[in-house]
Amino acid sequence: AQSVTQLDSQVPVFEEAPVELRCNYSSSVSVYLFWYVQYPNQGLQLLLKYLSGSTLVKGINGFEAEFNKSQTSFHLRKPSVHISDTAEYFCAVRDFGNEKLTFGTGTRLTIIP
Amino acid sequence: NAGVTQTPKFQVLKTGQSMTLQCAQDMNHEYMSWYRQDPGMGLRLIHYSVGAGITDQGEVPNGYNVSRSTTEDFPLRLLSAAPSQTSVYFCASRRGDGTNEKLFFGSGTQLSVL
Fold it and tell me: Are strands B109-113 and B10-13 parallel, antiparallel or unpaired?
């Protein structure tokens, strides 16, 4: 069965510093991978997705993620964060042929001025 | 377009009461789903539907019922509310033909069961 592990529940980062949010998945088949962001008191919105093709995926707001099949990882990165990036970030996985999308427990990104 | 609309935004129930959380989408999406969000647990899938007349269980279906009589609507029913059902509930939808995997979320319903 598919599952997702987000290793860090909270990540504090200074403004304009780089950040990496870690995500590892488990699945016995090929997968679709996603990162969603939740700003305070809002629903989730899609940051980026990996379906197939290039393993480096670029998303909105300057974020990117790299699919690493051998390490079963899909880490999210941004070279320089802003105060507006303060939010909770969720990694999610869906097996090919499975309609269910499974979310990780989330990483709260806090930007320090 | 309104996207995914959830009502109500807030609700307080007493233990044992029943209620229905409403979800409607105007994007003609085949796939709709309900998640609950609890601190430290992320989002957990309650029920989902791949089209009108078709529903299936997610990770945490106990205590909840769903139906899908139209493409647009996917209500979630709490039959007899329990304090363990205190949570934030999100409805989400997407296309079902594999051309776009993006899930569109509603703004959520914050439910407290006393």
Answer: parallel
Q: Which one of B25, B32, B43 would you mutate to disrupt binding with A, by most A Cβ within 10 Å of its Cβ? A: B43
Find all residues with CB under 8 Å of B32, minimum gap 6, and list them: B23, B25, B48, B49, B68, B74, B91, B92, B93
Whether the pLDDT of residue A13 is over 90: the answer is yes
Quick: pLDDT tens for A80-103: 999 999 999 999 999 888 888 999
User: In this structure, how many other beta carbons lie within 10 angstroms of the beta carbon of residue B93?
Assistant: 28
What pLDDT, on a 0 to 100 scale, did the predictor assign at position A86? Answer: 96
Q: pLDDT digits over B66-103, tens only?
A: 999 999 999 999 999 999 999 999 999 998 777 678 89
**B102 chain-A contacts, CB cut-off 8 A:** 46, 49
**Sheet of B19-25: strands edge to edge?**
B4-7, B19-25, B76-78, B64-66
A11 touching B, CB under 8 A? no
- Taking CB atoms and an 8 Å limit, are A90 and B42 in contact across chains? yes
A104 contacts on B by Cβ (under 8 Å): 42
